[in-house]
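Example with several molecule types.
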Amino acid sequence: MGPLRPCLFFYLFLRGDLVAKPSTDTWDKEFSPWNDPDEKPLIRFKNVTKKFGDFVAIDDLTLDIYTREFFALLGPSGCGKTTMMRMLAGFESVTEGTIELAGQNIADVPPNQRAVNMMFQSYALFPHLSIYDNIAFGLKRDKLPKDKIDARVAEMLKLVRLEKFARRKPHQISGGQRQRVALARSLAKGPKLLLLDEPLGALDKKLRQDTQFELMDIQETTGTTFVIVTHDQEEAMTVASRVAVMDEGRIIQVATPGGIYEGPNSVYVADFIGDVNIITGTAKAAGESKYYVDWGVNQAPILATSERPFSDGQECHLAIRPEKISITKEKPEEAENAVQGKVLDIAYLGNLSTYHVELPGGQIIKAQTANTRRLSRRNITWEDPVWIRWNATAGVLLAE
Amino acid sequence: MRRFAMIAVPYGWLAVLFLIPFLIVFKISLSDAALAIPPYAPTMKDGFGALLQGLDFENFVFLTTDDLYYKAYLSSLKIAFFSTFFTLLVGYPMAYGMARAPEEWRATLMLLVILPFWTSFLIRVYALIGILSNEGLLNQFLLWLGVISEPLVILNTNIAVYVGIVYTYLPFMILPIYAALDRMDDSLIEAAEDLGCSRMSAFWLVTIPLSKNGIIAGCFLVFIPALGEFVIPSLLGGSGTLMIGKVLFEEFFNNRDWPVASAVAVILLLILIIPIVLFQRNQQKQAEAEG
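Resulting structure tokens for the full complex:
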């Protein structure tokens, strides 16, 4: 095809660019390569196990990550998320199984030859080099000509809005700026995959929130695949196209942030992400994909819908988010589920209030409402008898 | 007032233990040798006016007439320079190894480096004679191995002086380099590799520059005392080893020419001031970079 090829590439480049720049803040609904059986994953973990001595850090893990994804590995410390990232970067070997990058097994590729760059938790900026030289470091290793390096560094500095700081040393700039330099440095070589190890961990909350959106913008602009490691569930939910919740070297669930929040597959995930009420009882069929949950001696059974089948008498856990439970002083009419209780505690968060309602059996259910009225006009207070209600579809019925 | 007192302590220390003795030595270097006690003239007993009139730079002029002194200075500089270099060559890998060792081992390794200080310096140098002499342990071991058929002549040569200096001053080289390497974040090396460095180039581009201050400090800590070293060249070096410390000792005790010996010492100090000032500036710059 000879001369046609560059044209074709250019065309694809243009098209890719147009498709990849959704104007909305949220993820493009069309972007879901994981649902497309023809799509080839960029990274493929196949039955990967990693052991440190007797300790199993990663336990027979299989996972696909696709091009242009912003993939979050979420879990408590020691769950193996950092080990996974270090295996991708090449700093840890794989004990069993294979990791493929763009279809190639990368087991024998040393870190300096992988088309993967990493942004370190400590940023790992070279203190003896200026910001310019830090960003140029990787480009110089590739022996690029001086003018190309200059152009690329300038582009990166512009991307992270640090043009004025090129001559400074890392200790002469603020923490937030250092974080952006680290990002620019890891993006400078145009990696296929960028790994971010707790990239915002060292920033204070306000700056972190701003930076999250900046990260997303940069990810969209550059079209690089990002894999982020974090223990902050809010961060994972905000930035990621998909989130993998990990525990003890295993992936418990992989789904979009909405999928994880609304449809957790286990009590562990439901509990790890956000606030949740877990009601344990036994299931009893109540029509098509509807179940009654027997949960207390003197309580009416709860009606809940579930796509997952449960047999009669099977133990089950109903997970309901507090914001899906409403609270009233009067007995609600025609509610699918309504229970009376007493306000035990009120957590006032400004925009929201969470009511801890104690039921006669001693269980405590959290109900959250938006504070649409001013605090002084709130009509529910401590010790008040109240009714809480929720729909059959509000919760998720879980087996484990 | 309190700040003044705080500053006054080190300055007072410096004045009493350095400046005043130096002025005395300087004064002696301007005097003439005499058969008296003390062995120079004029002294304070002659009255202040006579004292001032009796002082001249004769001894310094004398140092330029005999090329022994000039050769001794040069040879001292050479020996100090090369032994500093060799100490660095031996010390850096040791410091690097210590900094890379498992956390629980580091305290022990550090102790092992400092341990020789628990024994007298002189005894350790005598021990080296036992090792390096023609019938010494080293030669016997090499003969036993069959590597050599004739004992090597090491003792009483410059090589023995190098061995002595490297051995005695090694901890001064290791400790500052270790301190610099220990402070270094391991993820910097990983970052360098991640950005395309091989192990070796990561070492040259990151580890060496970041331990530069430790290297400089260690080199000065070895070079400065090595330049005026007297015990090692006189015990391990032969008649061919020319070092200014030895010359100074001979002028002072054998010739009893205190004024010339003092002149030698003053020049030695002037030579040392340059590296000392450089060392100070390095320390200051380091403090600023960290602050």
